[in-house]
Amino acid sequence: MLLKKIDFTAPSNKSKLDISLNTNNQTWEEYYASYAYVIYQTMLAGFEMSQPYNPHGKAILFLMRHALELQLKSELAKRGEIIPTTSNIPEIIVALGGINSLPEEIHRLVQIIDLDQNGYCYRYYFDSCKKSTYFKFGKVVETAEYFAIHEKMVNSNIFNSKPICPDLKIHEDWDLNFQVGYEFQYWHLRFQYDLIIEILLEGVLNGTVDLQQSYIPLLFLIRHALELSLKAFVSDLEQFTGTECVESLCSEYRLSVLYREFEAFAETLNLDKMDVEMQEELKILLCQFNLHRTNIEALDFYNENFRFPESYNTLHMVKFSEIPLAELIELYYHSNKILSFSIDVLVNEGILTSKSL
Fold first, then answer.
1. In whole angstroms, what is the distance from residue 305 CA to residue 216 CA?
2. For residues 66 and 64, what is the distance between their CA atoms, to the nearest angstrom?
3. How far apart are the first and last CA of the chain?
4. Residue range 244-283, pLDDT digits in tens
5. Helix/strand/coil (H, E, C) string of 171-206?
6. Beta pairing partners, 329
7. Mean pLDDT, 10 residues at a time, over the chain (357 residues)?
């Protein structure tokens, strides 16, 4: 991972990850602009990759859909209308006067990107209501038209559209075909979100990405990666515990609830087979992980603050300028270590044995 290269104690890195001077008011327009900026930087970074977008297609598609949702809600805010609490785009469009009152370009963007009621299909892989994956194996979402239409909206200043992709002429259309039917574990999806986090952090540290324009989506990505990591861990544990709790937890977003499953299992482990040095390292990692979880959840318990500037038409109380972002990112790195390797380590040490074997 990129984060292995970061010296978290270096003053220069800490200063680059400092958001204490942020003076934004966190309006709908600012949230929209921030998410659009992150999409743009992600697409720009793809120019230097051999397989630019498919490895993190669902994560990009979520950002695209969410930016569109924020753009529509920003338009409502500009008109002085009440902002619907729903993420259901057709309902938001009704609040704007109905689809026939909107530009044709908006109508087409919705048709391309809005593939479920609330965008869960890009944030998760399993639909607990239908008890199946959101997409069938091999499903592809073609987005070349989406980006082309959006570029026209930027040039025509429709709904104050912000750029989300560099020069489209550089791309072949097939470059923008996102495969979304190959994620069958939470790990697969989590790595997509991790990759965008790395793109942003690398850009911030080398000076090509503006932290002040990107920190809100970055915080969402970090929180969501943690949620997916916990769900991945709980999912992996089913084969060792004989329990079936993943289906009931797949729609759970509260980190404390997910962590209880993780913690309950950890407390049952007999670590006597593990050498003393590894036991001590595991204790440290568990403490760091729990600290990361509690810090993130204190900032965004309901998984809303990093996605929206307000909830139920009430501004949230998070003071972004007081968030120690460098410390959160350091803890994110340590959390990745425990959740990426703990199952394999416990199996190799003979502490875990599959119930299915």
1. 9
2. 5
3. 33
4. 665 667 778 899 999 998 888 778 778 888 888 888 888 8
5. CCHHHHEEECCCCCCHHHHHHHHHHHHHHHHHHHHH
6. none
7. 65 90 83 97 82 74 98 97 95 96 97 94 86 87 94 97 86 80 84 92 94 96 93 79 66 89 81 84 87 93 92 75 91 78 76 63
Tens digits of residue pLDDT in 304-323: 999 999 876 666 778 898 99
Q: Where are the domains positioned within the chain?
A: 2-18+25-348
d(CA 354, CA 352): 7
Alpha helix (H) ranges present in the chain? Answer: 11-16, 28-46, 57-78, 89-95, 104-113, 120-123, 144-156, 186-206, 211-241, 246-249, 255-268, 276-299, 325-348
How far apart CA 354 and CA 357 sit, in angstroms, is 6
Q: Which of 22, 51, 44, 320 is nearest to 199 (CA)?
A: 44
Rounded to 5 degrees, φ, ψ at 189 are -75, -40
Cβ neighbours, 10 Å, residue 44: 17
Closest CA to 225 of 134, 110, 123, 352: 123
**DSSP code of 79?**
T
CA dihedral of residues 302, 76, 35, 183 (deg, nearest 10): 60
Count of C-beta atoms within a 10 Å radius of residue 295: 15
Token pair recorded at residue 277: 């040095």
